[in-house]
């Protein structure tokens, strides 16, 4: 196995792990951050697959913008524990 294939395999394993974490975590903030990490790792996978234009779009929209919208929505809502 070449180093490129090992890096791609490790990246894809981390994508799956962060995706599972985003589903399993009970805290919304932690789940949103895990989803952002998943999007950033997916962007790295696209870059390793020699698709830099897709990687930049995924990093900008998937990792940055979507995570920011999720965090803003969580910040604007009230937790049940506070009531």
Oligomer kind: single chain
Class per helix and strand makeup: mainly alpha
Order of helices and strands: HHH
Q: Give unreliable regions as ranges.
A: none
Q: First CA to last CA: what distance?
A: 55 Å
Largest sheet: none
Rg, rounded, reads 15 Å
Number of strands: 0
Task: Provide the β-strand percentage band.
Answer: under 5%
Mean pLDDT: 92
Count of separate DSSP helical elements: 3
Shape: elongated
Q: Compute the number of structural domains.
A: 1
In helices, the fraction of residues equals over 70%
Salient structural properties:
82% helix, single chain, 83 residues, mainly alpha, 3 helices
Short description:
This protein is mainly α. The chain contains 3 helices and no strands.
Model description:
It is a single chain. The chain has 83 residues and is mostly helical. Helices cover 82% and strands 0% of the residues. The protein has one domain. The chain has 3 helices and no strands. The longest helix has 25 residues, at 52-76. It is elongated.
Which secondary structure elements does this structure contain, and how are they paired or packed?
Blueprint (H helix, E strand, L loop, with lengths): L2 H22 L3 H21 L3 H25 L7
Helix pairs in contact: 1-2, 2-3
